[in-house]
Amino acid sequence: MVKVAILGSGNIGSSLISSAISRGYEVIGTGRTDVTLRRVLELGAKATSNNQEAISTSDLILISVKPQHFPDLVRGTTRNIWRDKVVVSVMAGVRLETLKRIMEGASVFRAMPNINATVKMSTTALTGDGRGKELVETFFKGLGSTYWINEDFMDVWTALIGSGPAFVSEIIDSLVLGAVASGMPRELAYSAVLDMLEGTARNLRSHKGHPAEVRDNVITPAGTTIRGLKVMEEKGVKAALIETVESASKRASELGRVIDGRIKEDTERW
Ligand SMILES: NC(=O)C1=CN([C@@H]2O[C@H](COP(=O)(O)OP(=O)(O)OC[C@H]3O[C@@H](n4cnc5c(N)ncnc54)[C@H](OP(=O)(O)O)[C@@H]3O)[C@@H](O)[C@H]2O)C=CC1
Ligand SMILES: O=C(O)[C@@H]1CCC=N1
């Protein structure tokens, strides 16, 4: 039985816990507050505020605190606690180089899942190499699909796929509001737009060509679609979405640099 520690049992940590519990892993989740620890217990895992204890009693360690809280977490642990462990960080931006600086003797990976892990439909990027690679892949396959990628693409993956569900939710909300503005009841519009989205994803996947080809198949000359697309062009929707992903990706890189600086300062004092 693989023993798994989830350090930081918030939004994504809770999904990791639920998935691990449902697949028979022995799980311990950590948090600082009673609210978090109660949630961990309700999910069926052991709970503790002591990260050191969680790490020492587990084989696979998943780090799901916010990047800004990571240096604090490290300060609360001893230097050689990571030795021989398989460690996976899901933190945005924090690079393998930064993790390895702290985790002497550990096999270190990064994963970037998304919140669709809640319904076992995360699309998770994995990066790293060495002992425990299969264990890591098996764990994340339980949350949905996995892709091994070069770490250089991790920040843009974080923007596109990690943050993606938020961007898509925002777009869906806007489309629904458009229907409401045109007189449709909200519930009907919301349910229908989700069906349309799933259908579009399946259609695009089966079409295999460029999405613009599917778009062009929808356009009837002088019809409704071209009127809507013209507004999208006029309002700069495409440019705004390109910039959305670019900007989120830059923020991931920025977070990585900031956390690396803090960890460097701490390790220089060791
Ligand atoms: N949300 C998402 O969709 C995704 C998030 N991520 C990454 O996952 C990480 C967590 O994000 P998210 O779940 O949204 O954030 P949350 O704030 O929901 O969760 C973070 C959790 O960490 C706990 N925590 C903070 N400090 C410590 C500590 N020292 N020891 C133990 N637990 C601690 C907090 O609990 P308490 O307050 O009780 O301490 C909190 O529950 C981030 O690094 C993010 O980049 C990656 C992919 C997707
Ligand atoms: O907003 C964030 O920073 C995290 C990373 C990906 C999704 N949520």
UniProtKB/TrEMBL annotation:
Gene3D superfamilies: NAD(P)-binding Rossmann-like Domain (3.40.50.720), ProC C-terminal domain-like (1.10.3730.10)
Reactions performed catalytically: L-proline + NADP(+) = (S)-1-pyrroline-5-carboxylate + NADPH + 2 H(+); L-proline + NAD(+) = (S)-1-pyrroline-5-carboxylate + NADH + 2 H(+)
Chain positions recorded as NADPH binding sites: 51
Principal location class: cytoplasm
Gene Ontology biological process terms in this record: L-proline biosynthetic process
E.C. designation(s): 1.5.1.2
Cell compartment(s), UniProt: Cytoplasm
Record has Cytoplasm as a keyword: yes
InterPro entries: 6-PGluconate_DH-like_C_sf (IPR008927), NAD(P)-bd_dom_sf (IPR036291), P5C_Rdtase_cat_N (IPR028939), P5CR_dimer (IPR029036), Pyrroline-COOH_reductase (IPR000304)
Recorded GO CC terms: cytoplasm
Signal peptide extent: none
NCBIfam families named in the record: proC
General function of this protein: Catalyzes the reduction of 1-pyrroline-5-carboxylate (PCA) to L-proline.
Family under the similarity heading: Belongs to the pyrroline-5-carboxylate reductase family.
Protein name as catalogued: Pyrroline-5-carboxylate reductase
Species assigned in the record: Metallosphaera tengchongensis
Chain's gene name: proC
